[in-house]
Every structure is written in structure tokens, then in C-alpha cells.
Write a structure and sequence with these properties.
Hydrolase/PRTase-associated, 15% strand, EreA/ChaN-like  fold, alpha/beta, 2 domains
């Protein structure tokens, strides 16, 4: 059978990652995906890969599909900053926006504990960081800007307060704001842009240059979040492109901040890190951070690693803001990429794309499973497979025959049920 031409390495222990580390080579950016936002194996094996990249190849930070303010709290913890907290489980309580389980889970707690231990004996410049790339935290970022500027610059803080005041009539509800801008020809764009300009023009206010970077990044989040919420009401792929453009801009800023020799690890869903130009996303004019990174830095400097599973369990919700629950993930559909890997044998596997490019059936689009934070196994065949040219979308793929759900911390969601606002849930 043609499928038998697929070569793979069995994945049973961390030593088996050698083949992947060798393929990564001297790349500056390594993006580690996931086929869902609630699978334990994706977190634990991304952690194993990230540890080796940091220890053996000098990678400087991990940047994830999470909000900047919350992830920066973890960054402060692992670097031992003053008043950053000491108990990891307590600091993880900052993740109170649904879906909380994405980052407030025991798998992430284990990663944070390792990063804190790794950083303990290192100088400030050698410590590994942890940052959020996403754009959802409009109000949290605005609040952090005001708090910082109140103690450092009385003039710049007025621009930040003006931006917040513009949003107050919408009760800090992104859905209300987004809908209002669809019907009223006024919005808060000018206010947040003015705030960003004022913040970026300021001198460094502290001996800690990362704190200054944090303030400016929060201003950038506010600008791009406002764009994102306005774009959502227009529909189509524009809001997705705003979001991934912001994530790419943030990655660029982090690399620049850490210096010309810096290296980045990115953790995001496959739909973000797998090059969108080799999927049906491109048909709708959509792009993603994986595609943008390849275009800017070159394919040799960027390694895109997808993750997937044949069956198992996952944490997800039946609707946006719904209670999280453990769900059964059925066997992958026949003809899909995951089903093809299953037919090779029941081993967990690492597959390198360089070994796939001579297989004719993989040079066309086939289904690649994608489970979001909203999921219902009964409807999987209708929308959970992304048509994909696998050897081009990824540089490597990590496959699990049977996966298990991530282990979340039990937390209350801030503000109760979130609105069913987001057109994409990956």
C-alpha cells in the first residue's frame, strides 16, 4: 500500500525526540501545535521538546496562545521578580477568562515549576521567559497600563484614562462594543491609538526594562483588540487575520527585545502554527502566524510541528462559555491524516515532512483533525477536519494513538458566562 511509504520514529521516551531535534537544526523559531486545546499529551510532549530546546539549543522564551497580562504574571513568577507570588497554583488563578483550562491546568503547572527551577541559578539575561501572544485582553491590558502610569507619568496616564472612558458606556462587554460599532459611526480607535503613541514615546520608567516592555505591549494589545472586536461584526476572515497579525507582531517584538541571537518557542493550535497557505483557509483569504513567520524569516529558520491523535478524550465545552467537560474523541474519519497514521500501526509517532514529499496522495489536501474549545463529537464530520497538504503545512507531526484529557485546575470564570462572540474557537 502507498501508505506504507510513510516513515516514522516511534515515540515512547524523551530520547526518541532526538530525530525531531536534529531536524529542527539551527532554526530560530519552533512552533509546536496541538490538535485540540484540551489534550494532556500535547502539553506534556510540548514541554519535553521545549525543555530540550532551551537546554540544548539556547532558546530564550516560550510564547503561547494566551493573553498577555495573565501570561506575564507567570513570566514574573518564573524569573523571581518581587511580589510575583510563590505558589504556582495560586498564580495560575489569573486565568479566569473562559476557557480557563487552557492554561490553568496541572500540565502547565509542571512546565512553570521546571522553568522556575531552570531560571533560579541564572542571571537575569539568561532566564527563559513565558509570554502570551493573544489579543483578547482589551480591558485587562488597559487596566495594567493605567496602574503603571499612575505611578510613573501623570501626562501619559491621561491618555490611558481617556481610552478606558471611551469603552465605559459598553460596560466592558466586547460584544456590546463590537455590535455598537456596527451601527454607530463612532468607535474608540482614535483613543487607543493616542494612548499607544503616548506610552511608546515615554522613556523607560524603571530599572527593569521588561516592565517597560510589558506596559508598551499592553498598549499594543489594546489597539489590536479594539480592531479585532470591530472586525468580528463584519464576519469573514478579517478578525482571524487581525488576531494572527497581532500574534506575529508580538513575536517579532519579543525576538527584538531578547536580541539578534534570540530564539523563540511558540505553543498554539495547529490552525495557527500550521502554514495556512496549504489549507482551505487560504481560499477565504485567511493567513496565520505560521505562514507569516515563514514568509518573514524563511523556511529554514522556522520549524512548524503539528500534533494530533486518533482517538481518546478531551476537555472542551458544548458552547462558548459552557461548563468544561471531559468528552470522548471518536476514532478519526477514514481518509484523514490521523486515520492514515493509525493504519500504519498503533505506535505513537514522529513523522518528518521531508520523508513525505514523494508520496503522491499527500501532495493534495486531506483532512487534518482540529478540535477547538467548543466541541461536540456528534458533529465532528461536519467541521472538525481542515483540508491540508500535510508535508507543506508542517515540517513535522507528532501523533498519538490514544490521548487523554488535560487536567484542569478548578476555578470560577470571571464574570460568569462569556458571550458567544468568537467566530473561530481554535
Amino acid at each position: 500500500m502507498e501508505d506504507k511509504q510513510i516513515k516514522y520514529t516511534k515515540l515512547t521516551k524523551e530520547k526518541d525526540l532526538d530525530v525531531l531535534l536534529e531536524d529542527i537544526g539551527d532554526a530560530r523559531i519552533v512552533m509546536l501545535g496541538e490538535g485540540s486545546h484540551g489534550t494532556s499529551e500535547y502539553y506534556t510532549w510540548r514541554t519535553a521538546i521545549s525543555k530540550r530546546l532551551i537546554q540544548e539549543k539556547g532558546f530564550n522564551f516560550i510564547a503561547v496562545e494566551g493573553d498577555w497580562p495573565e501570561c506575564y504574571a507567570l513570566n514574573r513568577l518564573i524569573k523571581g521578580y518581587q511580589n510575583a507570588g510563590s505558589k504556582i497554583a495560586d498564580v495560575l488563578q489569573v486565568f479566569r477568562r473562559w476557557p480557563t483550562w487552557m492554561w490553568a491546568n496541572w500540565e502547565v503547572a509542571a512546565l512553570i515549576e521546571w522553568l522556575r527551577d531552570y531560571n533560579h541559578q541564572r542571571s537575569s539575561s539568561d532566564k527563559a521567559g513565558f509570554y502570551g501572544l493573544d489579543v483578547y485582553s482589551l480591558w485587562e491590558s488597559l487596566d495594567q497600563i493605567v496602574h503603571f502610569l499612575e505611578n510613573n507619568d501623570g501626562q501619559a496616564v491621561e491618555a490611558a484614562r481617556k481610552a478606558i472612558n471611551c469603552f465605559e458606556p459598553f460596560n466592558r462587554d466586547p460584544q456590546t462594543y463590537a455590535q455598537a460599532t456596527a451601527f454607530v459611526p463612532t468607535d474608540c480607535e482614535n483613543e487607543v491609538i493616542e494612548m499607544l503613541q503616548r506610552v511608546q514615546s515615554q522613556r523607560t520608567f524603571t530599572d527593569d526594562p521588561e516592565n517597560d516592555f510589558n506596559t508598551k505591549q499592553n498598549a499594543l494589545v489594546a489597539v489590536n483588540a479594539e480592531k479585532y472586536y470591530r472586525a468580528m461584526v463584519r464576519g469573514g476572515g478579517s478578525s482571524w487575520n487581525v488576531r494572527d497579525s497581532h500574534m506575529m507582531e508580538t513575536l517579532d517584538r519579543l525576538l527584538e527585545f531578547h536580541g539578534p541571537e534570540s530564539k523563540a518557542i511558540v505553543w498554539e493550535h495547529n490552525t495557527h502554527i500550521g502554514d495556512a497557505s496549504y489549507t482551505d483557509m487560504a481560499d477565504d483569504g485567511m493567513f496565520n502566524i505560521g505562514q507569516l513567520a515563514r514568509e518573514k524569516y524563511g523556511r529554514e529558520q522556522v520549524r512548524l510541528v503539528g500534533f494530533g491523535a486518533y482517538k481518546g478524550t478531551v476537555i472542551a465545552g458544548k458552547a462558548w462559555g459552557a461548563p468544561m467537560q471531559v468528552m470522548e474523541v471518536p476514532e478519526a474519519l477514514e481518509g484523514s491524516w490521523e486515520h492514515m497514521l493509525h493504519e500504519l500501526g498503533t505506535d505513537d509517532k514522529i513523522v518528518l515532512s521531508k520523508n513525505l514529499r514523494d508520496i503522491p496522495k499527500l501532495q493534495k489536501r486531506i483532512g487534518n483533525r482540529a478540535i477547538g474549545v467548543v466541541y461536540d463529537p456528534k458533529y465532528e464530520m461536519f467541521g472538525n477536519y481542515v483540508p491540508t497538504v500535510v508535508p507543506e503545512r508542517y515540517d513535522a507531526f507528532v501523533y498519538f494513538e490514544e490521548s487523554e484529557a488535560v487536567h484542569p485546575l478548578r476555578m470560577k470564570i470571571r464574570g460568569g458566562k462569556e458571550p458567544d462572540l468568537y467566530p473561530w474557537n481554535y
